[in-house]
Amino acid sequence: MRTDSRLATVAGYVAGFALLFLIWHLAATLLVKSILFPPPWPVFERAVVLIEDNILQEQIVASMRRILLGFALGSAIGIPVGLAIGSFRVVRWLLEPWTEFFRFIPAVAMITVAVIWFGIGEESKIFLIAYTTVFVVVISTAAGVGAVGRDKIRAAQCLGASRLQVFALVALPATVPYILTGMRLAMANAFVTIVAAELIASNDGLGKLLWDARLFMQIEDIFVALVALGLLGFATDRVFRFLIRIFAGRFNATV
Q1: Label partner for 125 (CA 20 to 30 A): which of 25, 118, 204, 217?
Q2: Would you state the pLDDT for residue 232?
Q3: Are 107 and 16 in a shared domain?
Q4: Residue 169 lies inside a defined structural domain of this protein
Q5: Are 17 and 123 found together in one domain?
Q6: 30 in the same domain as 101
Q7: What is the pTM of this model?
Q8: Which residues of the chain have pLDDT under 70?
Q9: So what's the pLDDT on residue 248?
Q10: Which structural domain, as residue segments, surrounds residue 72?
Q11: Other CB atoms within 10 A of residue 52 CB
């Protein structure tokens, strides 16, 4: 039964992408009819050329490396901060203004600051990814702590659990789905941010590929980069959902 469900899911994904490319083809050939909006097939042919020249793979690896490093750093900071904000009122009073202040400053606005501080190397891009990740994770984690049922906490206390045991055995497990959901949302922000960062200052990556293609009016290259970003984002999100099922399924995560 589970195998049939997985096959149906995969078939649905394939059908969805087929419909997307069909609509793209019809729009490009019947409605727009412009060299600036090529149909899927020339874009696919250009992608094959870039793959054969090992160009597309190099750009994907460069972007994904930055995304994963910055995402891991931002999550490593955001989870404990979110747990502290949700668990201790004094910490919430002190750190909530910081969170609310900085999360409304978009990562794109911090690009200039990041370049000044860290230069145009890897550090600035990893900083930006961590910056755009940390606040989403903090808010989601703090919300998870606040959503823990009081009855569960009282039940653990009635059984003699200490405050540390209540946190480790009741509050933290119940917060795991919120943490992972926040990380999943933050991953989407990471993709947006890495493209903007690589457009401004980078020697490689999908953002750099987009920038060079714009400069030389290589329209097919632009669409190759866009399709690659979309497919990478879709694949990353599916992997994240799979991991949520594995590590948080018993806590009733919504996936």
Answers
A1: 217
A2: 92
A3: no
A4: no
A5: no
A6: no
A7: 0.83
A8: 1-3, 149-154, 156-157, 159-169, 201, 247-255
A9: 61
A10: 38-148+174-251
A11: 9
